[in-house]
Amino acid sequence: DLAANLRGLNLQVRTANGIPNPAIGEELLSVDTVSCVIEAGVHDGTVSFNQKLDELGIPHLWKEYGPGCHTPENFEREIAATIEAFTEQFADPTPEPTTFSYESIEPEFDVYGWHVAADPRRALEFMRLSNVTSAGLIVAGSGRTTITSPPLFAGADLVELHGATTPSAVPDAAGRITFAVDLGPPDSVQEYTAGADPAETARSVTFAPRYPPPSGPPQGAPSGEAEEGWTGGPKDARPVCRVPDLTGATPKRARARLRQAGCRLGKLRRPHGQGTTVVGQHPKPGRRLRAGFKVGVRLG
Length: 300
Hints:
With 300 residues, this protein is α+β, with helices and mostly antiparallel strands. 18% of the residues lie in helices and 28% in strands. A six-stranded antiparallel β-sheet has the order 3-6-7-12-9-10, with no helix packed on it. Strands 4-5-8-11 form a four-stranded antiparallel β-sheet, with no helix packed on it. The protein is flat.
């Protein structure tokens, strides 16, 4: 049911078929035969999962090894191949999607920097997000649902909301907003149980950030001169880079946040040769620069 949530991830689906394989060190007359029963069951489930991913059009690697059981010998070849593929992925990470859909039965969940909290009075049931972008989203479920965005609105005075319970929200220091959506009365009976009759309501919420009028050319224009085409007027709609807070983000997530804010990822620095998350950045969050400005980050 949740396979669609995996869209955009690097997926590898590997299995053997539960027949002993002496060529990799499995023995026919040993405890390995019991492991073969387990692997046969894994094989059936994995084949079904692969078919579902194909049905949904979700790209993934599919590897059916043939003979092999649920043994260390089989795991060794599968893990070695998996790590090799992940090494290539880590070297060139896929950016986070600019639009996505997701569903969960959890009362609270996080996805791509969004935090969603269901009505505490609501029975356990699925909630669905769709067409989520920096401009808005669609949420479906029941009860009063509270949503917090990623740091998309650094530098904005407020964000006008259409479809939420309030007409606007003020971003926090990092550029996040929190708002509520009325999805009708909360369902009182757990979904997929006797007597359940979910009354799912879907609402569209859109965001319109309002920024203070510029007083001059965006920072980052050539020294001593205004950027070409910049008028500096309060109604000027020229695209700009509004630097978001990247603290704690992986390089992949930082690249996605910057793209959403009209910026680009600049140099990645690892002073100690390691580090997987952002601990420093230049320029600082909230700066208003020319569109496409490169933001450098330091990992730690």
